[in-house]
């Protein structure tokens, strides 16, 4: 089977607001950095995938705002509406199709120019649910309470995750927040929506990221330090919250099992060296690591108590600080992939978990309360 690899990554710093940059000006530095990292020029790119969202951008066909700076001139371009991990999946498929050798994937968000409660409210059924005023935070608060009650997870155990990830972010120069938080700081922060407190929630950030994906032939010609795509899969759960048990994560389990099978992984707790998991809220790191098979079901909270070691479960999770420290909404999953590539290359600086990371997991989410999951397994040759 033909293989593909990530051969270039570029990322901006995340911030609460980049008032001085419009959308193209935000994306352009990430594109330039990804091409320079790969050691190629835009002329070496066969096609482009932009990842955006009309609601967050406040305009229709939002992808058109960043097409030019992503190098769309005289080449095929397409758009994915949603999380960047899914945009990268589409880009990988194009490389494996036999029609394209390289794909540039970009993702960005300017959350500072949006009101997230209004935007995420629009994700719900317009007839029966939207009028209730639910948004992403309140829906995830429902999920958090259901999950915590089902598996006897305490608020303090979730607070350990937040403290760990904010501490990890102190070593991440691209992080939005650099906070040295104790568990007591998290527990003492103001309530946003029970049981989620301020520091249980990710910030809404501005930021952009780009990656270059190449099929095996082009990746070997480019050289450098490719991170090979060993396995990837995504799966979607029911749309309506009432049609699924919010304490379960069957879509994530299915996606993870398919990605592991493709990568030849039989025991992820022993074979994965580091994981970058989509943790928009503190409880989600516990919940998703269980769904990924990185710890036993219901064991995430107990294992979180090893947070002083930077682990949730048996392996380091979110050494970059994850989304709790930086959350450019549409770019978040693609940033997880970029961070996994840095770990594999040994170029993560103060975030590096081991000098010889051979296998890394990256994870993206679409939809409310983890409706859809995309799991990536990346590794060395």
CATH topology of the domain at 4-115 and 204-222: Peroxisomal Thiolase, Chain A, domain 1
Mean pLDDT: 94
Structural class: alpha/beta
Fraction of residues in H or I helices: 25-40%
Report low-confidence residues grouped into runs of 5 or more. none
CATH class annotation of the domain at 4-115 and 204-222:
Alpha Beta
Number of alpha- plus pi-helical segments = 14
Give, in spatial order, the strands making up the sheet with the most strands. 3-2-4-7-1-8-11-10-9
In total, how many beta strands? 11
Basic shape = globular
CATH superfamily membership of the domain at 4-115 and 204-222: Thiolase/Chalcone synthase
Q: What is the radius of gyration computed over CA atoms, rounded to a whole number of angstroms?
A: 19 Å
The fraction of residues in strands falls at: 15-25%
- Cα end-to-end separation: 15 Å
Q: What would CATH call the architecture of the domain at 4-115 and 204-222?
A: 3-Layer(aba) Sandwich
Largest sheet: 9 strands, mixed
Order of helices and strands: EHEHEHEHHHHEEEHEHHEHHHHEE
Could you please describe the fold and organization of this structure?
By secondary structure, the protein is α/β, with parallel strands linked by helices. It has a domain at 4-115 and 204-222: Peroxisomal Thiolase, Chain A, domain 1 (3-Layer(aba) Sandwich). Helix content is 35%, strand content 19%. It has 14 helices and eleven strands. The strands form two sheets. Strands 3-2-4-7-1-8-11-10-9 form a nine-stranded mixed sheet. It has a two-stranded antiparallel sheet with strand order 5-6. A hairpin with a 2-residue loop joins strand 5 (191-193) and strand 6 (196-197). Helix 6 crosses helix 11. The longest helix is centred in the N-terminal third of the chain and has 16 residues, at 23-38. It starts with a strand and ends with a strand. The model has no long low-confidence stretch (mean pLDDT 94).
């Amino acid at each position: 089977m033909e293989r593909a690899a990530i051969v270039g990554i570029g990322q901006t710093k995340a911030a609460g607001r980049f008032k001085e940059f419009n959308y193209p000006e935000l994306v352009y530095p990430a594109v330039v950095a990804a091409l320079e990292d790969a050691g190629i020029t835009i002329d070496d790119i066969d096609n482009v995938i932009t990842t955006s969202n009309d609601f967050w951008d406040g305009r229709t066909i939002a992808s058109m705002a960043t097409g030019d700076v992503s190098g769309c001139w005289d080449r095929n371009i397409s758009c994915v509406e949603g999380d960047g991990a899914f945009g990268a999946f589409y880009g990988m498929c194009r490389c494996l199709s036999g029609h394209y050798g390289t794909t540039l994937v970009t993702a960005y968000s300017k959350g500072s120019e949006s009101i997230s409660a209004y935007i995420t409210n629009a994700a719900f059924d317009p007839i029966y649910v939207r009028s209730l005023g639910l948004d992403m935070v309140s829906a995830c608060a429902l999920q958090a309470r259901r999950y915590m009650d089902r598996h006897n997870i305490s608020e303090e155990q979730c607070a350990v995750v937040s403290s760990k990830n904010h501490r990890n972010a102190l070593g991440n120069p691209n992080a939005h927040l650099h906070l040295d938080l104790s568990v007591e700081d998290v527990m003492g922060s103001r309530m946003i929506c029970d049981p989620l407190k301020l520091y249980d929630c990710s910030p809404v950030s501005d930021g952009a990221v780009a990656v270059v994906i190449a099929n095996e032939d082009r990746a070997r010609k480019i050289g450098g330090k490719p991170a090979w795509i060993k396995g990837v899969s995504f799966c979607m759960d029911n749309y309506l919250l009432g049609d699924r048990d919010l304490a379960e994560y069957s879509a994530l389990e299915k996606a993870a099992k398919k990605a592991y099978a493709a990568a030849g992984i039989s025991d992820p707790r022993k074979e994965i060296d580091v994981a970058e998991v989509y943790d928009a809220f503190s409880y989600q790191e516990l919940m998703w690591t269980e769904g990924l098979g990185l710890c036993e079901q219901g064991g995430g909270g107990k294992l979180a108590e090893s947070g002083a070691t930077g682990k949730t479960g048996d392996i380091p999770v979110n050494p970059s600080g994850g989304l709790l420290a930086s959350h450019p909404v549409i770019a978040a999953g693609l940033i997880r992939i970029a961070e996994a590539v840095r770990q594999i290359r040994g170029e993560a600086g103060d975030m590096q978990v081991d000098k010889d990371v051979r296998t890394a997991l990256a994870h993206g989410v679409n939809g409310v309360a983890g409706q859809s999951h995309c799991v990536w397994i990346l590794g060395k040759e």
